[in-house]
Amino acid sequence: MSDPTVEYPHEVRAAVLREVGAPMQVETIRLRAVGPGDVRVRIEATGVCHSDLSLANGTLAQPLPAVLGHEACGTVVETGAEVTDLAVGSRVILLWITPCRECHPCTHGQPHLCEKGSSRAGEPYAVTRDGTPVYPGLTVGSFAEQTVVPRGALVPVPDDIDTADAALLGCAVMTGVGAATHTAHVTKKSSVLVVGLGGVGLSVLQGARLAGATTIVAVDRNTDKEALAKAAGATHFVPADDTTKKAVRSLTGGRGADFTFDCVGSSRTIRDVWGLTRRGGTTVVVGIGGKDDAVQFSALELFHFARTLKGCVAGSVDAEADMPQFFDWVRGGDLDLRGLITGHGTLGDVDHALAELAAGRGVRTVLAPVEKS
C-alpha cells in the first residue's frame, strides 16, 4: 500500500466545505506532491467571490469535501522539474481556467472556453487527515495557506503591482472589465446599463468607462452602493425597484441602452436587462445562474428587436496575453481596485464574507490565509 504522506506531503490549513449550505471548517489537509509541470503556491491574498457563494449553496455543482476560493495572488514556494520560467519567491495570479492550448476553443481564439479548463475542479488535489479526497473549488482552492496547480494556471505579477490588486485581477476585475472590453466590445459615446453591483458589476462599470461610454447607468437593490458605482464610472445610479425600467428608459432616450449587462444571473434580471436593451443592441449575461432557472423569449421578439444576447465566461479574456494591459491600467490609475475591497479577514472569516454577499452588502472581502505572527 502506498504511503499517503509521500503522495500528499504538504500539510496546510484550509477552510473545508464538507456539506452544501453548512459552515466551513478550518482544518489541516495534505496537498498532493508537486508534479513535473506543477507549482506550489503560498496564498497571500484571496477574494471571496459570488461564485464561491454559488458553490457553497449548491447553485453550482462541486464534488465535496472541497476547498473553495479562486480569486488569488500568491508566492511560488516550489516548482516541478519542467517549470523553468518561474522561480521560488515569484508572485503569481492564480487562474480558475487553465487553457490547454490544444482543444478547438483554444486554437480558435477562445482559451477562456477551453474544453479542459475547469476539469481539475473534479479531481482530488489533497486529502484530509483521515485520507478523504479533497477537491479544489473552481480548480484553485485558495481558501487555504497553499495550493498546487499546473504552471498554465499562473500569471506572473510585476513588482510594482500590489498583491491585493493582483488577487482581484484574477476573477472579478478580469471578468467585469473584460465583459465590457472583450465580450461586448463597448463603443465610444455609447450608453451602458449594468445591473448588479458586486465586484464584477463594479468592474463592468470601469470597463465601460475605459471603453469610452458616455451614459453609464448602474442599478442595484442596495442604495448604499451608489457612491461605489459613481467612483467606478457610473454617470447615473438607479435603485432596483418598481421605477427602475422607467428611469433607465428616460436616461437612454426612451430606446434602452446600447449595451446591457446582467451581473446577477437570474431569469428575472436577464429578462429585465434584455427588455432595457435598445433595438439592435447587445445584452451580456455575466452573472452565473441556476441550471433550472429558465429564461423565455418569444420567436417574434427575437426577430423584431434584432438584439444580440451573449454569455460571458471570464470576461472572454486570454489572461496570459491580455493581463499586461490590465497591469498598465492599474499603473496608470485607470483601474481602481482598492475601491472594490470592503472587508478583510482570515480563513475563519469565510462564512461571514459569504453571508455578506448573500445579503447584498459589501463588495469584496479579501482574506489573508497565512496569519502573520
CATH superfamily of the largest domain: Medium-chain alcohol dehydrogenases, catalytic domain
Please count the beta strands (DSSP E, at least 2 residues each).
18
The unreliable regions are none
The CATH architecture assignment of the largest domain turns out to be Alpha-Beta Complex
CATH class term of the largest domain: Alpha Beta
How many domains, in number, for the residues? 2
What is the H/E order?
HEEEHEEEEEEEHHEHEHEHEHEHEHEHE
Q: For the CA atoms, what is the radius of gyration?
A: 21 Å
**Mean pLDDT rating:** 94
Work out the strand percent. 25-35%
Number of helices: 11
User: Which structural class do the helices and strands define?
Assistant: alpha/beta
Helix content: 25-40%
Q: Any idea of the CATH topology of the largest domain? A: Quinone Oxidoreductase, Chain A, domain 1
How far apart the termini lie comes to 39 Å
Task: Describe the model.
The chain is of the alpha/beta class. It has 2 domains: 4-48 and 66-170 and 336-367, Alpha-Beta Complex (Quinone Oxidoreductase, Chain A, domain 1), CATH 3.90.180.10; 173-314, NAD(P)-binding Rossmann-like Domain (Rossmann fold, 3-Layer(aba) Sandwich). The chain has helices spanning 4-7, 50-56, 163-169, 172-183, 199-211, 226-232, 244-251, 267-275, 299-305, 319-331, 350-358; strands at residues 10-17, 25-31, 38-47, 66-67, 71-79, 91-94, 126-128, 133-136, 146-150, 154-156, 191-195, 215-220, 236-239, 257-262, 277-285, 308-311, 341-345, 364-367. Strands 3, 5, 6, 9, 10, 17 and 18 form a 7-stranded mixed sheet that branches. A 6-stranded parallel sheet has the order 13-12-11-14-15-16, with helices on both faces. Helix 4 runs parallel beside helix 5. The radius of gyration is 21 Å and the shape is globular.
